[in-house]
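User: Teach me something about this protein's shape.
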Amino acid sequence: QVHVVESGGGLVQAGGSLRLSCTASGMIKSIRSMAWYRQAPGNQRALVAILFDGGDTTYGDSAKGRFLISRAAVKNTVYLQMNALTPEDTAVYYCKLVQQGNDYWGQGTQVTVSS
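Assistant: First, the predicted structure itself:
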């Protein structure tokens, strides 16, 4: 069993920053990737950023130039540094771990950006 837990969400004013954390625990064997997605009310869940085991990253259009995904020294933890936040970034942010062909999702953390 693999458990994924997000933290760091909250309320921030437009133009501010937040750093989200995602930590995986349990039967961690060979992580293929860890990624952040977000879902706003009425919208589909969308990719924010993904970090592959080899270090490559991919960003969704909404994150390019403002967000940075990184990994802690302990490889089962990733961060999402979010800068220049706007109200359009308001959403529940989810972390997904991919391992041995299986996807493991966290419960999500709410990010609310006030104007």
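Now, about its shape. The CA atoms of residues 66 and 83 lie 5 Å apart. The two ends are 40 Å apart (CA to CA). If you'd like, I can walk through any region in more detail.
User: That's plenty for now, thanks!
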